[in-house]
């Protein structure tokens, strides 16, 4: 029994250190399953990879697939890039499950839950498939710098939902549909992903200011932190909003980058079996195999050497700054505010 207890404590306490050679293999990209680090410069990052996107796409009804195809066709006719198609598909999937519905919050209708009362068109117009798609594209093109935003963030700029993070959920699926239905080859290189920046330096500066503060589960400062509370507040200090919990930060906190390309400020994750669904810890990468994190109860925020223990994920997350919504933006769809 004592051996079992010790084993559990070691696992929960992240104390399973491995040899330098094995860790170097992970960081250099020569070891581990790299499937999670798939990304597409043209289509936007693919979340935890093409596999999830393909699985999600298989759950769509035929009507939804046809609507996705129409979104792509209209985008092509207008000469818009694949990223625009992806943004529209993510918005439609989030708002209506890619269905031309005749109901919604208040007077929201159609694929994008456009509201006639908010100036999106008549009832007949906002339930006409082609009108909706073109209207979505019209508003998207008016968003400053939309091409540089994460697709889900750009969708939020159009929809202006009270739940801005939800559009990221369908990023892999939308990228998969654009690639397959739009005949756009998926690009697996990450050359165009945002690099480290002044914002990352600001996040790390905040985090370093919390060194020595105690770990308290669920805490997000100012006197104590848990692991995800520290990473969330660090990036918030830099003006970048990310979700609270470690697993949600992995899926919705920013752009996915291979561990081999990690830069200071990136979020590093541990999950049982290296599975993103088993994530239980997150910290801030400092460079040179150093990590700043809030470890566990009874310990304090510290800087330590990066470790594996069979749980270090081969993908990190790089939070990306959003540009502020322009003043006087068109009130948006989906019961948008």
From TrEMBL:
Domain called NlpC/P60: residue spans: 197-321
Family assignment from sequence similarity: Belongs to the peptidase C40 family.
Keyword Hydrolase: yes
Record-linked InterPro entries: NLP_P60_dom, Papain-like_cys_pep_sf, PG_Endopeptidase_C40
Protein's name in the database: NlpC/P60 family protein
Taxonomic classification: Bacteria, Bacillati, Actinomycetota, Actinomycetes, Pseudonocardiales
Domain of life: Bacteria
Keywords on record: Hydrolase, Protease, Thiol protease
GO molecular function: cysteine-type peptidase activity
PANTHER family linked: NLP_P60 DOMAIN-CONTAINING PROTEIN-RELATED, PEPTIDOGLYCAN DL-ENDOPEPTIDASE CWLO
Gene Ontology annotations of biological process type: proteolysis
């Amino acid at each position: 029994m004592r051996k079992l207890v010790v084993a559990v404590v070691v696992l929960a306490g992240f104390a399973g250190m491995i040899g330098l050679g094995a860790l170097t293999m992970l960081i250099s990209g020569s070891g581990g399953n790299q499937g999670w680090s798939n990304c597409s410069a043209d289509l936007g990052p693919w979340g935890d990879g093409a596999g999830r996107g393909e699985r999600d796409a298989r759950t769509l009804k035929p009507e939804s697939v046809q609507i996705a195809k129409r979104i792509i066709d209209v985008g092509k006719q207008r000469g818009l890039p694949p990223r625009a198609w992806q943004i529209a598909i993510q918005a439609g999937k989030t708002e209506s499950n890619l269905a031309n519905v005749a109901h919604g919050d208040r007077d929201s209708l159609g694929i994008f839950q456009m509201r006639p009362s908010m100036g999106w068109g008549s009832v007949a117009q906002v339930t006409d498939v082609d009108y909706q798609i073109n209207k979505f594209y019209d508003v998207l093109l008016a968003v400053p710098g939309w091409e540089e935003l994460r697709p889900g963030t750009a969708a939020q700029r159009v929809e202006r939902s009270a739940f801005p993070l939800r559009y990221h959920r369908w990023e892999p699926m939308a990228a998969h549909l654009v690639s397959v239905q739009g005949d756009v080859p998926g690009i697996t290189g990450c050359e165009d992903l945002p690099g480290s920046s002044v914002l990352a330096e600001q996040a790390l500066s905040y985090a370093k200011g919390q060194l020595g503060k105690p770990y308290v589960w669920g805490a997000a400062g100012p006197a104590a932190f848990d692991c995800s509370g520290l990473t969330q507040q660090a990036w918030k200090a830099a003006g970048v909003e990310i979700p609270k919990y470690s697993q949600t930060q992995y899926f919705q906190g920013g752009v996915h980058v291979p561990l081999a390309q990690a830069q200071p400020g990136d979020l590093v994750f541990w999950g049982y079996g290296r599975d993103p669904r088993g994530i239980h810890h997150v910290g801030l990468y400092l460079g040179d195999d150093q990590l700043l994190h809030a470890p566990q109860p009874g310990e304090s925020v510290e800087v330590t050497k990066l470790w594996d223990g069979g749980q270090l994920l081969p993908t990190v997350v790089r939070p990306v700054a959003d540009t502020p919504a322009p003043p006087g933006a068109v009130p948006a769809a989906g019961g948008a505010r």
